[in-house]
């Protein structure tokens, strides 16, 4: 599935005159087999963990439930095989003499695993407890696996990972690897490892990113829009990382897909336009919205576990209540332009625009929207059905971003449903405020379909 998406991406870039953005081949193996610099995505996660050693904001938790004939010991062995072939799962992270981070690739490393026969409720509690334990990136593997036999025909698998090795495509890669390794099937040749790409990325940054920097500094030049989400000052004393979550299913799920189809854009772009309209209801002339994109442009990245994510910032005009068609068209143009310049690390841009404080919320946006399309089904093991769910770590999902919206599109056609997981900073909002915002978003989508605005 990932390979198919990459092929599709290249075709779309080519059709948009951006073929050069998706290149084939050419990433060399690094010179030092035991050591490498950090990738840009890794650097932010590492710096944040250095600043907040007890933080669990970058901890991600998944619980996968297999129902049927499943061998939990075979799952554990399959994970060992995956760790053996993916260096990033046996890598630790360190501070160098000059204060910069680097990664050390171990010859072997044991991923913490536990196996137990307990109830599903107890399994869920243990998984949540593990999620709330910070990773020590210097000494331990960035992955924990907890396997529970919760019934004669049920096994629960809790996967706890640090964001330094994870992006939105990694679950799909890991699922396919687990399926093959579980059945002792051959696994695809990796060609290069994540650390090779980190080194290659650092070597080419100066000559390849100047154009991206020029675009972003021009696009986000001052005066920039003010933050648009009204913060409750009475909550300022709440812990910086403490977060709440609101789960919300759009009643307008089908309307959003119809709206996108009508304007020949993706549901993501239609969603962005509607969210911008909601943010603009406080009278702002422009708003900024952050989103996460992947930089898996090269074929070598398709089968790799690792973090290839980057944030880009979209600047949208919402003054004088533009018609929905006009705002959707602008959102599409803005996203396409930003996507074409997606490789400039967000932190580099923030530094260029006046500085980036790792212990503070982002300067350039206060809400981050991430769209997760259907198709991420988890590992399909023979003789079993699979379902999975995310665990909430009770910390800001994207470190210190006031409001993160993760949009899950499930089903197809008339069966499409869109669920929003809204993670909000406890020192800025309460759950009621976020629920009200999402309700207004729902109404805005309905109105856009009926061309009321």
From TrEMBL:
Record GO terms (molecular function): 2,3-dihydroxybenzoate-serine ligase activity; phosphopantetheine binding
GO cellular component terms given for this protein: cytosol; enterobactin synthetase complex
TM region(s), chain numbering: none
UniProt cross-references to InterPro entries, sorted A to Z: CAT-like_dom_sf, Condensation_dom
Keywords linked to the UniProt accession: Plasmid
Residues in Condensation domain copies: 34-449
Pfam family, one: Condensation
Keyword Nuclease set for record: no
Keyword Transferase: no
Entry's Gene Ontology BP terms: amino acid activation for nonribosomal peptide biosynthetic process; enterobactin biosynthetic process
Lineage: superkingdom: Bacteria
Name used for this protein in its record: Condensation domain-containing protein
UniProt source species: Rhizobium etli 8C-3
Organism phylogeny: Bacteria, Pseudomonadati, Pseudomonadota, Alphaproteobacteria, Hyphomicrobiales
